[in-house]
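Hi Y.,

Following your request, here is the sequence exactly as I used it, all 271 residues.
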Amino acid sequence: IMMFLCVTVLCLVMGSVIMAMTGVSTTPRMRISTIVQDIVIFILPAIATAVVITRRPADLLLLTRRPGAVITAAALIGTLVSIPAMNHIIDWNASLPLPESLRMAEDQAQESINLLVGNGSWGSLIITLLIVGVLAGLSEELFFRGCMQRILSKSGFGTHGSIWVTAILFSAVHMQFEGFVPRMLLGVWFGYLLVWSGSVWLPIMAHILNNLLAATALWLGMRDPAAGEALSNFGSDSTVLAILSLLLTIIAVITARRNAARCDSNQAAIN
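Below is the corresponding structure, written out as tokens. Let me know if you'd prefer a different format.
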């Protein structure tokens, strides 16, 4: 844990200096800064820590195992069908009162996201999907689930404790407290996917899918605010749809967990 903290702080300082030199005053600069953040602040600490503390860094980060087809389908479908229920939680979280300082941080974070998305052109969509969708999903999962959660689970926190602590920190780092609870729940989902599949690639795929949908909604909102809002808030005004979403999500979770248990049993029999 201490090694991970030291490497993370060092990379955070490095990344902050580079980002300060780059600046975030324009969309291109914001995009460059975001790429620097993902690589230097998230990917680099995870890889550097793994290389330092073990001779098999890829095994520590769970990069070598490929998730099965059934659990992958359950993970991706579960991420999709949970959207209406999550949107209800988002609305509830957003209704909670926030101190003025946190409200300002929330507004600044939203302004940065809008600047990152750009002007709503098709080129902006492709760049946004690559940066916000693919790179962010890959870098954050490698850092939080592949490295942080794995280290915490091996340091006395246990499986469930490491998942929840990592999810809380994952949500807090985004500095968007109106979505703190739903983002934390997403982090918990990603954490269990890591444990059940034994592969960091599964939470990476689920995270990328979630981010691709969010990025598309943001981009669409630049071109057509009504359509963007409809996509972002899909199901939030329907209790029936939210309940159905919750039931389907539970089915997906159970399917993923049972498939993981079946794979564990088969592996034990082989061994």
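The chain has a mean pLDDT of 90.

Thanks again,
Q.
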